[in-house]
């Protein structure tokens, strides 16, 4: 079962981002988890392989060594498949417009079936 959490990309009173700008942030997150977590939580994150549609990164988060395959759907979705580490599954970050046309960022995770 997946739990979805959506937040506005452009909350009231904050500088407005375009979809392309929000996407650049997701690309940066795909490359370096350390920039998006509480300081000290991620002590290492490096891309060890990449293509036009995916990258493989190795990281140490909360003291656990992880290997993730990250797929990229330009200006739409980033999926982080944890291939090695304490939990197997996928976490997705997805950009979309709500009913009023406001840009949203949705987060959800799905564990692998065992």
Describe it.
Strands 1-7-6-5-4-3-2 form a seven-stranded antiparallel beta sheet, covered by helices on one side. β3 (54-61) and β4 (64-73) form a beta hairpin. With 114 residues, the chain is mainly beta. It has one helix spanning 19-31; strands at 3-8, 42-50, 54-61, 64-73, 77-84, 89-97, 103-111. It has one helix and seven strands.
What is the compact description of this entry?
The chain is mainly β.
- CATH topology (level 3) name: Alpha-D-Glucose-1,6-Bisphosphate, Chain A, domain 4
* Helix-strand string: EHEEEEEE
Poorly predicted sequence stretches spanning 5 or more consecutive residues: none
Q: What is the average of the pLDDT values?
A: 93
Number of domains: 1
Number of H/I helices: 1
Shape: globular
Work out the helicity level: 10-25%
Number of strands: 7
Adjacency order of strands in the biggest sheet: 1-7-6-5-4-3-2
Outline the biggest β-sheet: 7 strands, antiparallel
List keywords for this structure.
114 residues; 11% helix; globular; AtaL; START-like_dom_sf
Ordered list of secondary-structure elements with their pairings:
Elements: E1 3-8, H1 19-31, E2 42-50, E3 54-61, E4 64-73, E5 77-84, E6 89-97, E7 103-111
């Amino acid at each position: 079962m997946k739990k979805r959490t959506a937040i506005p990309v452009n909350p009231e009173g904050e500088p407005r981002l375009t979809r392309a700008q929000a996407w650049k942030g997701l690309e940066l997150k795909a490359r370096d988890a350390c920039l998006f977590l509480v300081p000290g939580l991620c002590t290492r994150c490096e891309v060890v392989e990449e293509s036009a549609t995916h990258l493989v990164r190795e990281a140490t988060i909360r003291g656990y060594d992880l290997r993730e395959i990250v797929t990229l759907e330009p200006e739409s979705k980033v999926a982080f498949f944890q291939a090695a580490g304490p939990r197997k599954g996928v976490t997705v970050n997805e950009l979309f417009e709500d009913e009023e046309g406001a840009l949203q960022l949705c987060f959800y995770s799905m564990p692998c079936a065992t």
